[in-house]
């Protein structure tokens, strides 16, 4: 069983990025991945179709895709309302996505915190981009997580330069989980598992931007024991999203 | 299928940053992955003395002729940088590697020009650690490359280090504007960008360069192997292109 915690699907003219869900599923099949959490590139409420498109994409592949609604906290009350809207689709949407580089809304900022709080009210985990750029650096995510300790925050492992910092941040923020995508250093992934424990690292690929085949190999070739590998590859994701089944199999 | 692989970019020797690699360790890593040859350059040495490191690298390359080729390093801010470049051929080295991040200079700073001019006169290609914020982002390298259109530059990391994907268009622009810039794929985890870069720069102008030990041989190779591109392009990426580009 393999669940990819981070992928994308959208036909997003503004960036010129066109990744239909069929492309995501094709790449999942190439790597043997069962389910993938996807998000659009545009954010609700500024991108009005963000939630409806996401629901449509997941409905096309209900046993393969899981939706994370991408929210622009700059929308203020409308952003919070967008979280409420997303929560109306529990079968398709099981989390919220923030991308501070795109929205210029830092995760610890007031508007982002309001969105995170609302997501936590609904029990929706929040995925935040986390990288080298201002807005998404590890502690900018970490202080947002500390502001809402009841929230579940998942983020990348810090990009090219902030891997060690992301691990230190996650150690200090017990509600933060790290994903394995978007980082070219297997050693950092292994260190994250060793330092945070096997329950707080989730397999992800950033499909279709990242390559599921080599990103899966990055994790399976770390020499992890079977129990740890299962947790990273799917059990942690299933727990955080409270999944009852994966592709018809009870979990 | 056994594929020929030549690594266009690996760092060896004593390192100020604690990731030293002996020449024997480098050869062992290559053997483990089936890499025929690597173009190595010195790490930033603990004594900051690049000229000494270049000379030592030349000796290593001579010892492992056939398995290694070498690029020297200089800090262009040093007054003797051009003189150090002029010595590289004599040390048996065939190019220059500049690392603006480790040596604290902007790649498009006019202070770098005498070093590049020395390379131009010596017919040496210039490999640049590219994508580092403030010092070697794509358009900074582009400015330099446009000033020296008859110098061949290689950009590490596909010319960008941005997991958001928001720097790709800068590199695509550079690829079309500056045909004297070539690219390695070290650390380019983005499947879509590998394909976009090849489309933009041409399949003859992208090479396999690992940036070991900063990056990981296994993952660097696996990513190119997994790319959905024709197999003959992979042959070019892994070996033929760097052989052609370095003559």
Break the fold down into its secondary structure elements and pairings.
The complex is a heterodimer of chains A (251) and B (247).
Chain A: E1 3-8, E2 10-12, E3 17-19, H1 21-31, E4 35-39, H2 50-60, E5 65-70, H3 77-86, E6 93-98, H4 100-103, H5 110-121, E7 126-128, H6 138-147, E8 153-155, H7 163-172, E9 176-179, H8 186-196, E10 201-202, H9 212-220, H10 226-240, E11 245-246, E12 249-250
Parallel strand pairs in A: 1-4, 4-5, 5-6, 6-7, 7-8, 8-9, 9-10
Antiparallel strand pairs in A: 2-3, 11-12
Helix pairs in contact in A: 1-9, 3-5, 7-8
Chain B: E1 6-12, H1 23-33, E2 37-42, H2 50-63, E3 68-70, E4 72-73, H3 81-87, E5 96-98, H4 100-103, H5 113-122, E6 126-128, H6 138-147, E7 153-155, H7 168-177, E8 181-184, H8 191-201, E9 206-207, H9 217-226, H10 231-245
Parallel strand pairs in B: 1-2, 2-3, 4-5, 5-6, 6-7, 7-8, 8-9
In terms of per-residue confidence, which ranges of chain A show pLDDT below 50 for 5 or more consecutive residues? Answer: none
* Structural class by sheet pairing and helices of chain A: alpha/beta
The proportion of strand residues of chain B reads 5-15%
* Count of helical stretches of chain A: 10
Q: How many distinct beta strands of chain A?
A: 12
C-alpha-based Rg of chain A, rounded: 16 Å
What string, H for helix and E for strand, traces the elements of chain A in order? EEEHEHEHEHHEHEHEHEHHEE
Number of domains of chain B: 1
Helix coverage percent of chain A = 40-55%
Which CATH first-tier class of chain A would you pick?
A: Alpha Beta
Domain module tally of chain A = 1
Order of helices and strands of chain B: EHEHEEHEHHEHEHEHEHH
- Termini separation of chain A comes to 10 Å
- Known CATH architecture of chain A: Alpha-Beta Barrel
CATH architecture of chain B: Alpha-Beta Barrel
């Amino acid at each position: 069983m393999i669940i990819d915690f981070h992928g994308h699907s959208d036909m997003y003219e503004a960036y010129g990025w066109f990744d239909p869900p069929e492309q995501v599923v094709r790449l999942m099949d190439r790597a043997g991945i069962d389910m993938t959490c996807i998000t659009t590139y545009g954010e609700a409420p500024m991108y009005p179709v963000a939630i409806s498109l996401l629901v449509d994409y997941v409905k096309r592949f209900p046993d393969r895709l899981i939706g994370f609604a991408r929210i622009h906290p700059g929308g203020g009350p409308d952003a919070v309302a967008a979280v409420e809207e997303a929560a109306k689709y529990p079968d398709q949407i099981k989390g919220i996505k923030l991308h501070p580089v795109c929205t210029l809304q830092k995760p610890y900022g007031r508007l982002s915190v309001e969105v995170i709080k609302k997501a936590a009210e609904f029990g929706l985990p929040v995925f935040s981009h986390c990288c080298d750029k201002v807005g998404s650096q590890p502690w900018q995510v970490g202080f947002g997580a500390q502001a809402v300790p009841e929230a579940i925050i998942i983020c990348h492992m810090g990009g090219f330069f902030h891997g060690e910092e992301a691990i230190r941040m996650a150690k200090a923020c017990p509600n933060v989980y790290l994903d394995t995508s978007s980082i070219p250093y297997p050693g950092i992934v292994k260190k994250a598992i060793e330092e945070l424990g096997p329950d707080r690292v989730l397999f992800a690929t950033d499909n279709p931007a990242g390559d599921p085949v080599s990103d899966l190999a990055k994790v399976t070739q770390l020499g992890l024991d079977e129990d740890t590998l299962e947790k990273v590859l799917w059990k942690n994701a299933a727990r955080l999203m409270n999944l009852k089944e994966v592709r018809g199999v009870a979990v | 299928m056994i594929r020929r692989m030549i690594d266009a970019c690996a760092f060896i020797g004593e390192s100020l940053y604690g990731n030293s690699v002996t020449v024997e360790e480098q050869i062992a890593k290559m053997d483990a992955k089936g890499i025929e040859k690597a173009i190595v350059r010195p790490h930033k040495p603990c004594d900051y003395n690049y000229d000494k490191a270049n000379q030592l690298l030349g000796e290593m390359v001579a010892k492992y002729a056939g398995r290694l080729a070498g690029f020297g390093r200089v800090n262009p801010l040093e007054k003797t940088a051009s003189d150090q470049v002029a010595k590289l051929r004599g040390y048996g080295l065939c190019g220059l590697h500049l690392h603006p991040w480790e040596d604290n200079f902007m790649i498009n700073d006019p202070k770098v020009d005498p070093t590049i001019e020395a390379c131009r006169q010596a017919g040496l290609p210039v490999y640049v650690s590219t994508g580092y914020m403030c010092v070697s982002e794509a358009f900074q390298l582009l400015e330099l490359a446009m000033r020296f259109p008859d110098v061949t530059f290689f950009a590490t990391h596909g010319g960008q280090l941005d997991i958001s994907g928001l720097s790709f268009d800068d590199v695509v622009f550079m690829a079309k504007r500056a045909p004297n810039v070539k690219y390695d794929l070290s650390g380019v985890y983005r499947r879509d960008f590998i394909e976009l870069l090849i489309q933009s720069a041409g399949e003859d102008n992208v090479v396999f360069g690992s940036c070991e030990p900063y990056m990981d041989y296994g993952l660097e190779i696996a990513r190119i192997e997994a790319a959905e591109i024709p197999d003959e392009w992979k042959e070019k990426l892994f070996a033929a292109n760097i052989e052609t580009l370095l003559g």
